[in-house]
Amino acid sequence: MPFHFQSINIVNPATFEGGVVYAIVFLAGALVLNRMLRLGVERALARGSRVHIDRTRVKFISQLAQIIIYIVAFFMYARYIPVLSNLGNAGLASVGVLSVVAGLAAQNTLGNLIAGISLLLYRPFNVGDRLQVAAPTGLETGEIESLSLGYTIIKTDDNRRVVVPNSLMASQTTINMTRDDSRAICSVSVVISLDSDLDRARAILLEIAGGNPKAKKIDGCPVTHLDGSGIELTLSVWCDNSVIAGGLKCDLLEAIKRRFSAAGIKIPPVERVITIKG
User: Fold this and answer.
1) What is the mean pLDDT of residues 207-212?
2) Which of 122, 125, 142, 149 is the most core-located residue (most Cβ within 10 A)?
3) Within this chain, do residues 172 and 188 fall inside the same structural domain, yes or no?
């Protein structure tokens, strides 16, 4: 008989024991659903190489769906627990005040969430795109590693992670260096003395660029400045992406110094002897 009494208490949501049992059941259900959702997302992303899948959208919606599952599970649990139901009815009059307080306390979080949804809808960039953004350390360039409900994480070339709130990502000017066309131009400006052979200097610059495998197309090498200190030539070369362009700059500068010295082309000793653009 005592066993029968306890079993009734366990299944009765009006008792403490019943409330605990229902809480465990609903929590377990939410955990199972979230587990199934994560496995489904992982399998979908694993097939991404064979089927076109928007990885950014899938990950974002997955995180949002997991939160919704827990919220729905809680409200379903509260529906079966008389104590919570009565408490909700008694506190209905204070819902407006609580919502205002919660809104003020979580305005940054809500702003990031809304901004994240906006980024998902308008899609100015996706996971894997290469961006240039403004940060407290200055301009940062890197690849988007993840886009979550609140933050966008950018992996820089030196393996640092720049964590940017979605509200800031949605409001600032961002340079997408990958979208549609990943090509980047490498622009190197060199100043030669007025008595140097201009045509010879230009021929050397074009020859150096043409012989480098990182250079895909030479855009030109015009005179871009002329004054009493010298003649400025600007060599512009297209590369596959901005990372390769950065490496090409270093190659060109070293080769230019060696070839100019061998050819007797003088570089005037001023502060702006060699400048790099782009």
Assistant:
1) 92
2) 125
3) no
